[in-house]
Design goal:
Strands 1-2 form a two-stranded antiparallel sheet. Helix 3 packs antiparallel against helix 5. By secondary structure, the protein is mostly helical. The chain contains 16 helices and 2 strands.
Amino acid sequence: MTELKGLKGLKGLGLKGTVFKGRSARAAAGFTAAALALFAVAPLALSDFRLGLLAKYLCTAMVAVGICLAWGRGGLLTLGQGVFFGLGGYAMAMHLKIADAGPGNLPDFMQLYGTATELPWWWRPFENPVFALAATVLLPMAVAAILGSFIFRRRVKGAYFAILSQALAAAFAIWLIGQQATTGGTNGLTDIQGFFGYDLNDPVNQRMVYFIIAAALLLLIVIARQLIHSRYGELLVAVRDSEERVRFLGYNPANVKLVAYVVAAGMAGLAGALFVPAVGIISPAMIGIVPSIEFVIGAAVGGRASLAGAVLGAIGVAWAKTALSEEFPAGWTYFQGLLFIVALAFLPGGLASLVGMVRRRRAAAGTTGEPSPALPLGEAA
């Protein structure tokens, strides 16, 4: 019996190793296919206009990667990602507007709306490109760290956390609108012409921006996957499923959730920063409550627990918004809300869960062709 138990343990370990190898092989194949599609197929198949739209959709997918980590794995319904998206976007846009104005000149909107004769003190650090680039990621992460520390240490979770994050998005958009002389108000920062010395009106440079965005998305996917399949990823799932039990084991659930929240904020900030050269504008309308909900809808429809599902869902919903809003400008919002409700009510795991459902049904019906690992041992016993 002891030998049999040892055999079972070795058998289980071998099967587990095979599963992990299979997952790694599928992930590598999927990553390669995505890279080929983004860097080879899309630039050849799409016009410059459509490729610019795809760059915009990929920025949305970058936010979805962070949502997959925070919500899909950690159970944190982040309805305020627009705040971090906006912080990254405004940090990038401020530097680009200063660069477009030239040395010693004010950005065009300050000359139109404001009475200042020099840059506001909090604009001046963004003259430095290194500071501006670092701020696009570190500023959202710093804000998330401060807010998350207060929220998670007070054990705020569930619907209360979602409402707080959504209120933060609304407050941030309202503040931006009220600072017309220094943030452009409702219009935001518009008519951005250059990107670190490159003319954004040149189609070649626009393609360069697309390739940068595609590379950044793939990098974020790799980072998120490493976190998800690490020891920290397992701890994050444990906190999501049984926070009190994890606390009893000696871990601080607040710190575990804070890491996911901060990383997701950094990803959203980077997405916002790259969104600016892709579109040429950033405004409060792009970072308020509605955009924050749209980020979550994309991840939910595709599958918030699956990186591939969240990314493809975000791209699909963003594409549908562009396509359907052209035909039904007044009805798209209702359709979007209905899509979110249907996804949560009838397919909580998103479209990505359909694959697992099919596999489980095939396994239950005995059509997979793979013998059960426990069957030979059972017969031996």
